[in-house]
Structure formats: C-alpha cells, structure tokens
Design a protein that fits this description.
Layout (H helix, E strand, L loop, with lengths): L5 H12 L4 H8 L3 H8 L30 H10 L5 H8 L3 H8 L6
C-alpha cells in the first residue's frame, strides 16, 4: 500500500508552486527526494489530477537542492566578470570554472 494519499500529492504540488524544493517536500512527507521527482514527472501517481507544470522542473538556481550559489552571488559574479577571470571567480566562490562559464554564457541561472 502507498504511504501517500491523493491529498498528500495535492499538498506536495502546492508546496512546489509556493517555491519549496523537492528535498524540503520529501522531508515533509518522510519520503525520498527521488520519489517526489517521480511524482512530479508523472512517472507515478499519473492518475492524480494535481499536476506540476513541467516547465517548473528545471531545478536551476536556488531551486536546485545542490546549489552552491545564491541569486546574489550570481549577480555579483556577473558584475565582476571582466575584472576577474573565470578561474579567479571560481576560486573565490568555490565552484568550477565551467560553472562560472555556464552562468556568464547564460546556460545556467537563466
């Protein structure tokens, strides 16, 4: 039998819409984050009328539970780029050069 009910799924979708990340939602319902992802991507609970807008599942920026940078950090990095190299910024913010490059080129945090 499932631990979750239809009402739980509806609550999870509301939490997601309010800005809670999947890790937070998983803890609230005492399930694994992967289970939340499976529900939100409609690989389970397909019959539920509570649906997550697929465009909100990108996990970019602070919504990614593994994010190391805040929105403020990103804005500061973008301002400092030109004065500082990818390598200098990466070292300062404890991320990889490719992370800095992706954010400067608009491939992440868009």
């Amino acid at each position: 039998a499932s631990k979750l009910t239809r009402v739980n799924i509806e609550e999870m979708v509301k939490m997601h819409e309010a800005g809670d990340n999947q890790e937070t939602i998983a803890k609230q319902f005492n399930i694994k984050r992967n289970s939340v992802s499976t529900i939100f991507h409609q690989k389970s609970w397909k019959h539920s009328s509570a649906k997550v807008d697929p465009s909100t599942l990108g996990h970019k920026g602070e919504n990614n539970s593994r994010a190391r940078l805040s929105r403020n950090d990103v804005n500061t990095i973008k301002q400092q780029y030109g004065e500082k190299s990818y390598g200098q910024l990466a070292k300062e913010y404890n991320v990889s050069r490719s992370t800095i490059a992706a954010l400067i080129k608009g491939r992440s945090w868009v």
